[in-house]
Amino acid sequence: MLTLDIKPQPANFIKELPSKQCKQLYVAILELMKNPTPHDSAKLKGYDNLYRKDIGEFRIIYRIDNTHLFVSLAGKRNDDDIYKKLRNLQ
To answer: Could you give the number of structural domains in the chain?
Structure first.
């Protein structure tokens, strides 16, 4: 199992959600620690080792290495704001 590293933006975003959605996202993140590339995740084009996972109306952006799962961003799935934030991180 991988070690989890959640950046401040996704941690704060998830923490402010209603409890049902908060739980859904944290459960999905815990599942990614067991299987970081499930069939419903996708590698992001133009980025090395970055993936996205959709959970209901939300999306998380993450990367993996041999020992860690790094959750970089979280946001609304149908909102391009998450990709604007991603470009700012680069």
So the answer is: 1
The dihedral sign for the CA sequence 36, 42, 44, 45: positive
Report the Cα 75 to chain-centroid distance in Å: 9
Q: How many CB atoms lie within 10 A of CB 58?
A: 22
Domain range enclosing 58:
3-89
What CATH number has the domain bearing residue 39?
Answer: 3.30.2310.20
Residue 88, H or E segment: helix 81-89
pTM of the model: 0.90
> Tokens at residue 70, please?
């790094």
pLDDT digits (tens, 9 = 90+) for 36-82: 999 999 999 988 889 999 999 999 999 999 899 999 999 998 877 88
